[in-house]
C-alpha cells in the first residue's frame, strides 16, 4: 500500500483562523476573476496597445487557460504537501507580476504576463477550497464552496461592469493593470500573516511518492466525469462571455458598448447568486447530482430561448438567469472531494481545475476559429452568426447534461 502523508490536525480553535484565512483567499479569488474577465471590455484598447488584431488579442488572452489548467495540478500537490500558508501567497505574487507585465504595451511581454496571471490564479480557488475544508464542517462545505465561487463571480462581474466605465473615464488600461497588481500584492501579505502553519509528519515513503495523491484522484473515473461536466459548463462563461461576449453583442445584436457590457456582465453577476444557491440546494437536498441536473437543465433552457426565441425576454434577463443556473458548475467540485479520500483534498481540487480549464483551453481556439474570427464579417449576416454561436453553446451544455447522468451520487440522505 502506498504511503501517504500524515497531517497533524489543527485543534478546533484553529478552525476560526482557517475561516479568516479562507476570507482572504476568497478576496484573492475575487481579484483573480477580475483580472480574467476585465480584458473583455478593453479589446480595442489592448489591440492598440499590443499592435495586434482583435483575434490576436484573443490568442494572448487564451494563454491564461493553458497555464491555469497545468498549474492547478502543481497547486494541488503543494497544498497537500506543505499546506496553504506559503503556497497560496506565492500564487498571488505570480498573479501580481502578471498584472504588472500586462501593463507594458508590448505583445510578447503581455503574453508572458497573461501566462503568469493564469499560473498564479490557479492557486486562488484551489487554495480557498483547501482552507474552507479546514475551517468549515462537512455539512456546510458545499455552501462554503458556493460562497467562494460567489466571490469569484462578483469579481468577474465587477471586472466587466465596473472596469468598462473606469478605463473610459478615469484611468487608462496600463494604470488599471498596475493598480490591480499592487492590490493583489497587499492581499498576499495579509493572507500570509493570518494563515495557520501546518506540521506534516513525513513518512518514509512520502518522498518517493510525491505524486501519490494524483494517482489516487486520477485513478478514479468519477474524477474525470466531474472535470468534464464542470469544464463544459464553464466554457460558455469563460469563452462565450469573458472573451467574445461584448463584441458578439455589439456586432451581431447591434448593442452599444455600454449595453453590451451590461448584458454580458449579467452572467458573472448571476453567478454571485447562483453559486451559493446551488451549493445550499445540494446541502439541503443531500443530493449533489439532483441539484446539478436542475442547474444544467435551466442553463440549456436559457441558451435555447436566447438562440431560437430571443425576443421573448430582454437579453440581459436571460443572461442573468443563465448566470444563476450556471452556478451549478461548482457542484462537481464538491462531488470530486466526496468521491475521493480526505487526504487528497488539495489534489482533488487541482485535478478538477486541470480538467475543467483544459476543456476551456481546447474549446477556445475552436470557437475563435469557426465563429469568433467571423464577427463583423460581411460574408455572414449578424443574425445567422449569432445563431451559430448559440448552437455551439447549446451543443456544449447538452453534452454536459448527458455526462452528468453518469456521475455517482455522493450526497448522504438523512
UniProtKB/TrEMBL annotation:
Keyword line: Membrane, Transmembrane, Transmembrane helix, Transport
Pfam families linked to this entry: MFS_1
Subcellular localization: Membrane
Keyword Membrane: yes
UniProt xrefs under InterPro entries: MFS (IPR011701), MFS_dom (IPR020846), MFS_trans_sf (IPR036259), MFS_Vesicular_Transporter (IPR050930)
Predominant cellular place of this UniProt entry's protein: membrane
Alphabetized CDD domains for the sequence: MFS
Membrane topology classification: Multi-pass membrane protein
Name of the protein described by the UniProt record: MFS transporter
Species name: Dyella caseinilytica
Source organism phylogeny: Bacteria, Pseudomonadati, Pseudomonadota, Gammaproteobacteria, Lysobacterales
Amino acid at each position: 500500500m502506498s504511503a501517504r502523508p500524515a497531517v497533524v490536525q489543527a485543534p478546533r480553535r484553529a478552525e476560526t483562523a482557517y475561516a479568516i484565512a479562507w476570507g482572504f483567499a476568497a478576496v484573492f479569488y475575487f481579484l483573480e476573476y477580475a483580472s480574467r474577465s476585465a480584458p473583455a471590455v478593453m479589446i480595442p484598447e489592448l489591440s492598440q496597445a499590443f499592435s495586434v488584431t482583435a483575434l490576436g488579442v484573443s490568442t494572448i488572452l487564451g494563454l491564461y487557460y493553458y497555464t491555469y489548467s497545468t498549474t492547478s495540478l502543481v497547486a494541488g500537490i503543494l497544498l497537500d504537501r506543505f499546506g496553504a500558508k506559503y503556497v497560496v501567497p506565492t500564487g498571488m505574487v505570480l498573479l501580481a507580476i502578471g498584472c504588472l507585465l500586462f501593463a507594458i504595451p508590448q505583445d510578447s511581454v503581455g503574453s508572458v504576463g497573461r501566462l503568469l496571471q493564469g499560473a498564479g490564479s490557479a492557486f486562488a480557488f484551489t487554495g480557498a477550497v483547501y482552507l474552507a475544508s479546514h475551517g468549515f464542517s462537512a455539512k456546510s462545505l458545499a455552501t462554503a464552496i458556493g460562497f467562494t465561487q460567489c466571490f469569484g463571480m462578483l469579481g468577474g462581474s465587477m471586472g466587466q461592469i465596473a472596469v468598462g466605465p473606469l478605463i473610459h473615464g478615469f484611468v487608462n488600461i496600463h494604470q488599471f493593470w498596475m493598480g490591480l497588481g499592487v492590490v493583489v500584492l497587499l492581499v498576499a501579505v495579509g493572507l500570509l500573516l493570518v494563515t495557520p502553519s501546518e506540521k506534516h509528519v513525513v513518512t518514509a515513503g512520502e518522498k518517493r511518492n510525491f505524486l501519490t495523491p494524483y494517482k489516487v484522484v486520477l485513478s478514479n473515473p468519477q474524477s474525470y466525469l466531474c472535470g468534464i461536466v464542470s469544464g463544459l459548463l464553464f466554457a460558455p462563461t469563460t469563452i462565450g462571455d469573458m472573451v467574445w461576449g461584448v463584441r458578439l453583442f455589439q456586432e451581431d445584436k447591434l448593442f452599444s458598448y455600454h449595453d453590451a457590457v451590461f448584458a454580458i456582465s449579467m452572467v458573472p453577476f448571476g453567478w454571485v447568486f447562483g453559486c451559493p444557491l446551488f451549493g445550499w440546494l445540494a446541502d439541503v437536498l443531500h443530493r449533489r447530482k439532483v441539484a446539478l441536473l436542475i442547474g444544467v437543465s435551466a442553463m440549456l433552457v436559457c441558451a435555447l430561448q436566447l438562440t431560437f426565441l430571443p425576443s421573448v425576454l430582454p437579453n440581459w434577463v436571460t443572461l442573468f438567469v443563465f448566470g444563476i443556473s450556471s452556478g451549478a458548475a461548482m457542484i462537481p467540485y464538491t462531488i470530486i472531494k466526496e468521491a475521493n479520500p480526505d487526504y487528497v483534498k488539495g489534489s482533488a481540487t487541482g485535478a478538477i481545475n486541470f480538467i475543467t480549464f483544459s476543456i476551456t483551453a481546447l474549446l477556445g481556439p475552436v470557437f475563435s476559429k469557426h465563429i469568433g474570427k467571423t464577427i463583423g464579417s460581411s460574408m455572414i449576416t449578424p443574425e445567422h452568426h449569432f445563431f451559430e454561436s448559440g448552437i455551439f453553446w447549446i451543443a456544449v451544455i447538452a453534452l454536459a447534461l448527458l455526462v452528468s447522468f453518469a456521475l455517482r451520487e455522493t450526497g448522504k440522505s438523512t
